[in-house]
Amino acid sequence: MLKLFTSLATTAAIALISGSAFAQGYPERSITMVVPFAAGGPTDTVTRLVAESMSKDLGQQIIVENVGGAGGTLGASQVAKAEPDGYTLLLHHIGMATSATLYRKLPYDTLNAFEYVGLVTDVPMTIVAKKDFEPTDLKGLVEYVKANADKITLANAGIGAASHLCGMLFMSEIKTPLTTVPYKGTGPAMTDLLGGQVDLMCDQTTNTTKQIKGGTIKAYGVTSAKRLDALPDLPTVAEAGLPGMQVGIWHGIYAPKGTPAEVTQKLSASLQKALKDPNVVARFAELGTVPSTDAEATPAGLKSKLESEVTRWKPVIEAAGQYAD
After folding, report:
1. Cα–Cα distance, 192 to 183 (Å, whole number)
2. 97 and 110 in contact (C-beta within 8 Å)?
3. How many angstroms from the chain centroid is the CA of residue 223?
4. d(Cα 146, Cα 138) in Å, to the nearest integer?
5. Which of 292, 267, 302 has the alpha carbon at shortest distance from 114?
6. Measured between alpha carbons, how far is 91 from 36 in angstroms, rounded to an integer?
7. DSSP letters for 175-194
8. Do residues 64 and 51 make contact, with C-beta atoms less than 8 angstroms apart?
9. Is 46 within 8 Å of 274 (Cβ atoms)?
10. Bridge partners (DSSP) listed for residue 295
11. What domains are there in the chain, each with its CATH number?
12. With DSSP H G I counted as helix, E B as strand and the rest as coil, what are the percentages for the chain, rounded to 5?
């Protein structure tokens, strides 16, 4: 028995030493960071800003790979199956939490198929409409929508997209179902909103701020707790009478299950540095968002956020009865 115990202890010690040595040398080559959405979208923009800064800190390039499809689950599935060596990462948004309910047959266990690196940012949403839409404020919009529900179209970037989730929450809050128009990405949805082919959309500030400032779309409210420096004249949804609409499209970085803790900690430390990079801070501000805090940009911070968001969105999605499979 003593020999067995000694053998097990020796094996554990060797594994610990090997893991530490691996982490000290990590990374020795480029890292792939998977974005489960199309290039050019809001999550892709956030990823590329963070990846560029982390690359400088880690001394190896982080290559952004777009693996879109199935509301982000294709890219997440690819990372879940990857080698747990720290060279394949995932940057996903709130869809990581909502897919647990939206998809009833996921090829991975949302809460247990990944290691956590940290939260990146929490992007507010904006309720926007085509430029010449009649209502002038959010209260008027709600009244107008309720009176003309059968004539109004609500665009989104596809089932599971941030715009789809925010749209579901909007309909839930005003207790009025609308005709939803899903697109294959944020770009086409915004193009049709700009062209007046659809009436409304609820999307991230990273995708709408420029259009709002340019006056090419009409904005009714932002889903943050306070007004944004980038859009100081735009009231919060709480100010405008929809306090339950407070929601952010948060983003986090994950690694495959089994990735050494020393590696995820090193990545987390690099993420924290990136979120203090003056260029990242400035660009995030232009996009209407702010970097996560050091406490949030940790494995524990992201794990807590994901668990709470899975719980929060489950009843919303079930009440809407809209599933992706």
Report:
1. 10
2. yes
3. 15
4. 12
5. 302
6. 8
7. T---EEEE-SSHHHHHHHHH
8. yes
9. no
10. none
11. 30-122+249-320 (3.40.190.150), 124-245 (3.40.190.10)
12. 45, 20, 35
**Six-digit token string for 194:** 């700009």
Mean confidence (pLDDT) of the chain: 91
Tokens of 297: 């940009």
Question: How far is 219 from 234, CA to CA, in rounded Å?
Answer: 7
The Cα-based distances of 162 to 5, 126, 134, 248, 269 in angstroms read 52, 11, 25, 9, 27
Q: Is the dihedral of CA 107, 70, 163, 144 positive or negative?
A: negative
* Burial label, 159 (beta-carbon count in 10 A; 0-12, 13-18, 19+): buried
Q: What are 38's two structure tokens?
A: 């199309």
> Cis before residue 27, ω within 30 degrees of 0?
yes
One-letter amino acid for residue 315 of the chain = P
Confidence of residue 1 (pLDDT cuts 50, 70, 90): low
With a cut of 60, say whether residue 125 has pLDDT above it.
yes
Joined together, the tokens standing for residue 258 give 């089994």
Of the candidates 282, 280, 296, 275, the residue with the CA atom closest to the CA atom of residue 230: 282
pTM: 0.82
